[in-house]
Design goal:
It is built from nine helices and seven strands, in the order E-H-H-H-E-H-E-H-E-H-E-E-E-H-H-H. It has 202 residues and is of the alpha/beta class. A seven-stranded mixed beta sheet has the order 4-3-2-1-5-6-7.
Length: 202
């Protein structure tokens, strides 16, 4: 998993409420036997016209937000079904962090388990940030995970909270298995002690 330290890039506003996982990753992209090509499916019905051409009205297709690294989202982003493909696709598209007021629970967990930082701000903070990034000229921000700050183009910053274990996993680029394997020696020592104390289990 790609470590997350301090990342600078464009932040695109997608501020509608209750954007569900079927919008983020439509069902026709769930048929593959691996994760490849999911970046094409992200917001497919919004990004592309029926002709297959990019929709010029969709924010991620506009030059000011091309190659965005962050999304500033409306409340309850990622609701609906629990499809992990939505997060895989966002990551393949180059999205490193989502910034909103609230995320659906399973979606939020999927983000953090797959190296996508999900930042929760207050409503007033999000509204202010949304206004700033809605102007392409001021939409470049830096998300500094070690210091838990979002730095804006005007030099101001917004602090954010994150669980310490989640933070360390993101900084080190560790998924749940990687985090567990960091304690492999302790796990083996415990197993040896436990089996020695309970030999009938062997």
């Amino acid at each position: 998993m790609q470590p997350f330290d301090s990342v600078t890039g464009k932040a695109a506003p997608i501020l509608a409420s209750n954007v569900d996982t079927d919008v983020i990753m439509p069902k026709q992209f769930l048929k593959g036997i691996d994760r490849s090509g999911l970046d094409k499916g992200v917001f497919f019905d919004l990004r592309f016209l029926e002709s297959g051409e990019p929709n010029p009205d969709f924010v991620l297709n506009q030059p000011a937000w091309s190659g965005a690294r962050f999304l500033v989202t409306g409340p309850n982003f990622g609701c609906g079904s629990s499809r992990e493909h939505a997060v895989w696709g966002l990551k393949q598209l180059g999205i490193r962090a989502l910034i909103g007021t609230s995320f659906a629970g399973i979606f939020h967990d999927n983000c953090l388990r797959n190296g996508v930082l999900a930042i929760q701000l207050s409503q007033s903070q999000l509204q202010a940030l949304g206004r700033i990034v809605s102007d392409g000229a001021t939409s470049t921000i830096t998300v500094d995970l070690p210091n838990q700050q979002i730095r804006l183009s005007d030099g101001s910053s917004i602090g954010f909270a994150i669980d310490e274990l989640r933070k360390q996993a993101l900084l080190l680029g560790l998924d749940a298995i990687g985090s567990t394997l960091r304690r492999a020696v302790q796990i083996r020592d415990f197993e040896a002690r436990y089996h020695a104390a309970h030999p009938w289990l062997g």
